[in-house]
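Question (not urgent): is this output format expected?
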Amino acid sequence: QVQLVESGGGLAQPGGSLRLSCAASGSIFSIYAMGWYRQAPGKQRELVAVITSFGKTTYADSVKGRFTIFRDNAKNTVSLQMNSLKPEDTAVYYCLYTDTSDSWGQGTQVTVSS
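Got this back:
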């Protein structure tokens, strides 16, 4: 069982920045991936960015060049630096931990609005 605690998020203006962080605890495997998904009202949950234990990253096309995912393996944390935010980035963002199964955080709201 893995527990995820998210922090960050909130309200930002278009063009602004926010940082999300997620800490994993519990039965942590030595090899695992962590990342972020998001779900906007009326839409399906979608991948934002994922990073493996070896540092390989995958980004959604819509956030490439604007968002950066990074992790601290010693602390079992993953963070998402979001720059040049757009109103379409507004969503609930969920932290994901995955090894042989998936664990999800409770979600944190990100709102981009002037």
